[in-house]
């Protein structure tokens, strides 16, 4: 063994240029692996904490919809019109959450969509219309929060002006960037106490509410939160999202109003004569109509459904316990027969979380492809280097060296070279990531925000990733030499000795 | 991020298209003209266009729209609509569902106000502004004209149920219209639209609409029951029923914000 090793190191020295080329390639491979995995890890950890600290929590509990997956953004259904389910048997679900171990804190909420609007268009506002404010800039993604527990759970919400919503207080909290855009659109500077007219959309229809601005906030981590995020008191949200007591009342219709709905074939409606009735146009009393509607609607005031929540978000005492806690919760829900489901932050983030996966998968695929290309190049270089040494192999075998000895010699050479090079490469990788960190490169768009896992590029090399990179490159070096050596050993020693 | 809102926006479109469906219902009204042996197809289209022309007259009716989707509860909207086309005015008052009763839409020229009686607030928008980020098209908000928007590619004879009909195959002249190709089934013995088929650009049947019931009012024919079948999502269909129709003059105050406020008082 010692002989083989000594010969191996001597050979590496003897074939300096070839060793250098292969060494550089192996080192490059290790460097790519170290830097690449540092990015993937940073992205994963950064995104997870950005989401879970800012708005998703670690654990997300929602009702189940037949239309599609449920997230904080509602139901991802093809038409986008499906109503977000309300948590059934809420009190029971809450008691299960409270009694499940490893849950550090929880809060309930409901979400909805709205648009900033105004009563009328003044000439001043008409000018503002021509400004850069698009109608999508006026959209609000509303979080109707339980003010008693929400702010303790999500402490990344920093108040720039005003205060946080208090329990029972009606109002809105908008972000600093929203304040600027809205001021621009309304043609007047907005501050605390000013009211905003917002129009809520839901499957139950539209609803207008005028609410005061209670606070202006800024998120400490701006990485992955929706720009349109705004906080609202839960009562107002319930009314705007159609979570009202009378929303599901059955409607009595006249038979002729549904008579044709049993038909699937339009042509079958023309089997008999087309009826043409004679009508007479009498004047209509609009005051009587108005009075009638006014009287009936006054009888049924719109009342928010107390205790209706769409989601419960919770944080685990440690990231390690998240999956275990989710499993425990789902087991309890199944046991009680309540149709609710617990998931992780990615389920809560919904389509947002998925786009992150896509970016990460693409990035990981790029690294894998790069590694495969590196392996092929290394293997090719090995082939050339071994073939060139065919006569040397022939001579060794002619003077009595067995196939095993020759193979062992080359294995030692390849492994030693790979080990040294990959250690150097991994070391360079650490240096590169340190430099990248020190440069404090800022993410300029959503793609880089996801890639960086936060606002700044912050790749961190873990010991595990470094060892993995070294092991992978040693294995690559080992595998790469097998084929050319077996090729060289197939040649008869006499012929091999004659090779130039 | 905006992808969510683009996706969500149909909710807004839904409300807007409610108004559209109600207006569309009026398209079926046909003047009483006895069919000729072989009428000029363009003249026939112009006759159809006149149906929606309520120039010089006010119109009011109660529309009930019941929409059925497989596996879902029927969705019901009932509204009273007031129209004055000469001034591009309309007012829609929601009657059902109960929670939205008293909500209204008022249009005057390019301005549209939505009124919510529970907060007693109006929300203003302009028609142009609304169209910027929705799937709605201009044609959804203007009265369409078959003769202006479509060219007749063929006119054949056929039967629909027990009725002999002219079948007009139309191709869009502009890209302002919602459907590239429209096939109309027009009753021969008395000019009235019985069925309409809408096709997409690639020739796929998107929607079938049937008009089997009419009322004759002040010399005009109005469709009182309309069935719309979604041919893409089979089983999804809507019935529009019109009642209490009138062409009597309406007081001017109907087309004001004050009237909407009065209704919810």
UniProtKB/TrEMBL annotation, chain A:
It is a multi-pass membrane protein. Pfam families: FtsX. GO terms for biological process: lipoprotein localization to outer membrane. The chain crosses the membrane at residues 20-40, 361-387, 408-436, 456-483. It is found in: Cell membrane. Keywords: Cell membrane, Membrane, Transmembrane, Transmembrane helix. One of its GO terms (cellular component) is plasma membrane protein complex. Its main location: membrane. Belongs to the ABC-4 integral membrane protein family. LolC/E subfamily. This is ABC3 transporter permease C-terminal domain-containing protein.
From TrEMBL, chain B:
Pfam families: LolA_like. InterPro entries: TP_0789-like. Residues 1-35 form the signal peptide. Residues 87-262 form the Uncharacterized protein TP-0789 domain. Keywords: Signal. Gene3D superfamilies: Lipoprotein localisation LolA/LolB/LppX. CDD domains: LolA_like. This is Uncharacterized protein TP-0789 domain-containing protein. It comes from uncultured spirochete.
């Amino acid at each position: 063994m010692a002989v083989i090793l000594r010969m191996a190191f001597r050979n590496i020295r003897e074939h300096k240029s070839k060793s250098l080329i292969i060494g550089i390639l192996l080192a490059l491979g290790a460097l790519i692996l170290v830097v690449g995995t540092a990015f993937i890890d940073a992205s994963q950890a950064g995104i997870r904490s950005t989401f879970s600290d800012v708005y998703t929590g670690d654990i997300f509990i929602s009702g189940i919809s037949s239309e599609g997956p449920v997230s904080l953004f509602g139901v991802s259904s093809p038409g986008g019109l499906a109503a977000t389910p309300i948590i059934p048997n809420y009190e029971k679900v809450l008691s299960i959450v409270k009694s499940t171990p490893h849950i550090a804190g929880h809060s309930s909420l409901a979400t909805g969509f709205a648009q900033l609007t105004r009563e009328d268009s003044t000439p001043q506002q008409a000018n503002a219309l021509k400004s850069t404010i698009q109608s999508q800039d006026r959209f609000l993604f509303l979080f109707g929060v339980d003010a008693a527990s929400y702010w303790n759970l999500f402490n990344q919400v920093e108040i720039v002006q005003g205060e946080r919503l208090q329990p029972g207080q009606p109002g809105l909290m908008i972000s600093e960037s929203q304040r600027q855009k809205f001021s621009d659109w309304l043609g007047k500077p907005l501050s605390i106490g000013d009211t905003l007219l917002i129009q809520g959309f839901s499957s139950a229809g539209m609803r207008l509410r005028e609410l005061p601005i209670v606070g202006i906030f800024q998120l400490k981590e701006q990485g992955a939160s929706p720009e349109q995020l705004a906080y609202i008191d839960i009562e107002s949200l319930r009314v705007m999202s159609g979570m009202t007591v009378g929303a599901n009342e059955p409607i009595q219709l006249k038979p002729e109003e549904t008579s044709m709905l049993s038909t699937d074939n339009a042509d079958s409606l023309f089997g008999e004569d087309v009826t043409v009735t004679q009508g007479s146009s009498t004047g209509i009393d609009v005051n009587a109509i108005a009075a009638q509607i006014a009287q009936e609607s006054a009888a049924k005031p719109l009342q928010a459904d107390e205790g209706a929540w769409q989601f419960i978000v919770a944080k685990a005492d440690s990231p390690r316990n998240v999956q275990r806690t989710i499993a425990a919760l789902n087991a309890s829900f199944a046991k009680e027969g309540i149709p609710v489901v617990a998931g992780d932050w990615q389920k809560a983030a919904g389509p947002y979380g998925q786009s992150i996966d896509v970016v990460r998968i693409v990035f990981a695929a790029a690294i894998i492809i790069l590694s495969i290309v590196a392996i092929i190049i290394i293997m090719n270089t090995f082939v050339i280097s071994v073939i060139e040494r065919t006569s040397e192999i022939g001579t060794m075998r002619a003077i009595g060296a067995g196939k095993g000895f020759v193979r062992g010699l080359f294995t030692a050479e390849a492994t030693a070279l790979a080990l040294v090079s990959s250690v150097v490469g991994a070391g360079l990788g650490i240096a590169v990531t340190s430099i990248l960190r020190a440069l404090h490169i800022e993410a300029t768009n959503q793609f880089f925000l996801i890639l960086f896992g936060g606002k700044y590029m912050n790749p961190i090399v873990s010991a595990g990733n470094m060892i993995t990179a070294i092991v992978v490159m040693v294995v690559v070096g080992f595998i790469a030499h097998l084929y050319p050596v077996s090729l060289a050993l197939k040649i008869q020693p006499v012929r091999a000795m004659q090779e130039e | 991020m905006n992808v969510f809102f683009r996706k969500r926006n149909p909710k807004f479109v839904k409300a807007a298209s409610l108004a559209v469906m109600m207006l569309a219902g009026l398209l079926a009204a046909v003047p009483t003209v006895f069919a000729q042996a072989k009428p000029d197809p363009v003249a026939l289209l112009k006759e159809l266009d006149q149906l929606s022309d309520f120039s010089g007259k006010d119109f009011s009716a109660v529309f009930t729209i019941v929409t059925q989707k497989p596996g879902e509860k029927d969705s019901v909207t009932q509204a009273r609509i007031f129209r004055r086309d000469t001034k591009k005015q309309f007012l829609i008052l929601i009657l059902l569902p109960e929670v939205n009763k008293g909500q209204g839409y008022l249009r005057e020229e390019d301005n549209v106000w939505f009124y919510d009686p529970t907060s007693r607030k109006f929300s203003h928008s302009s028609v142009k502004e609304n169209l910027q980020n929705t799937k709605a098209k201009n044609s959804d908000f203007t009265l369409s004209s078959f003769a202006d928007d479509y060219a007749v590619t063929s006119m054949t004879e056929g039967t629909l149920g027990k009725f002999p009909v002219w079948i007009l195959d139309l191709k869009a002249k502009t890209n302002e219209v919602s459907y590239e190709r429209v096939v109309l089934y027009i009753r021969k013995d008395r000019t009235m639209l019985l069925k309409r088929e809408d096709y997409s650009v690639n020739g796929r049947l998107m929607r079938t609409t049937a008009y089997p019931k009419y009322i004759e009012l002040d010399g005009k024919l109005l469709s009182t029951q309309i069935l719309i079948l979604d041919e893409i999502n089979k089983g999804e269909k809507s019935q529009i029923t019109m009642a209490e129709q009138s062409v009597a003059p309406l007081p001017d105050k109907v087309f004001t914000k004050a009237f909407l406020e009065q209704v919810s008082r």
